Amino acid sequence: MLKVYFDGLCEPVNPGGVATWGFVVFKANRIIFKDCGLAGIPFRKSTTNNLAEYTALLKAASWCVQQKAKSVKFYGDSMLVVNQVNGTYRVKSENMAPLYLKVMETLKEIKNYSVEWIPKEQNTVADELTKAAYEDFMQKGGILKMPMPFGKYKGIPIEKVAQHHPRYFEWLVKNVEIKDPIFKKALESLLKTFPSGL
Q: What are the tens digits of pLDDT across the range 86-103?
């Protein structure tokens, strides 16, 4: 019996941010595999937290099928995804329907499986993997193409704001409260590249 924990996120805005997925596989209380990555194309309206969660479950289920796993318990903290997969909720989103169908087809290849909801506090390893994928994307230059999510230059790529309005950019990074620590860290790194000279 394998226990698989999956998670997804979309930051720093949802929808339209950077969606990432992560999953971790336990066998006899020992991690035997873990993986993470991007879900969808960053900064599009169709890029959402639900897309990330479904992608995480699909990646996890596909890995289990490749390993010829016969018995798997999947655990996720997205009540929507878990209830849709279990047939409690209907899939209303046209964007999610193809991904939902792909997940269901993949799960059917596993002889004995269940998908159960758990609170976020019990899903910390998968959650850390989604954050690692997000931070990796941001630190490797992903933040440069990101549309500014707030302020008077909202919608303009962050790189252009930093280049053409360095004083405003510096003021923004230093004075606006940004709750997402990974986004804040990436902005601060970018600020060193485009100093305002103040």
A: 999 999 988 899 999 999
Q: How far apart are CA 3 and CA 31, in angstroms?
A: 9
All domains of the chain in start order, with CATH:
2-130 (3.30.420.10), 147-193 (no CATH)
Cβ neighbours around 73 below 10 Å, total: 15
| Residue 101 CB contacts under 8 Å (≥ 6 apart), including other chains | none
Please state, in angstroms and rounded to a whole number, the distance separating the CA atoms of residues 92 and 53: 16
Q: What is d(CA 107, CA 65) in angstroms, rounded to the nearest whole number? A: 8
Ranges of H-type helices in 74-123: 79-85, 97-107
pTM: 0.89
Residue 168 has a CB neighbour count (10 Å cut-off) of: 15
**Tokens 């873990």, residue located:** 34
